[in-house]
Amino acid sequence: MATDAGEDAEPDEDGEPECAEPDGAPDLPTGPVLPADFRAWRERMGWTQEQAAAALDLSRRSIIGYEQGSQPIPRTVALACWALTVAHRR
Questions:
Q1: Residue 9 near residue 37, CB atoms below 8 Å
Q2: N or C, which end of the chain has less CB nearby within 10 Å?
Q3: Cα–Cα dist 69/1, whole Å
Q4: What is the pLDDT of residues 53-89, one digit of tens each?
Q5: What angle do CA 70, 74, 79 make, to 5 degrees?
Q6: pTM of the entire predicted model
């Protein structure tokens, strides 16, 4: 992911790219979301598949498909995940 300055983000202590802006909000997603990242997001939120489906107004079947990689994760879903993350932090 790119930072506000347009440079590639440096990995944090876990080896993952740093995703926080100075105000603590995560960067907007810019590329495809990987299935493992989607599942990690759901688990960080502390949600079951059913809860994530309800929050995103999707079916549990869609959540399973995204997590298994059998369905591509639409950009609109990635943006909704971002918005839910920001709202969850406040």
A1: no
A2: C
A3: 21
A4: 999 999 999 999 999 999 999 999 999 999 999 998 8
A5: 135
A6: 0.69
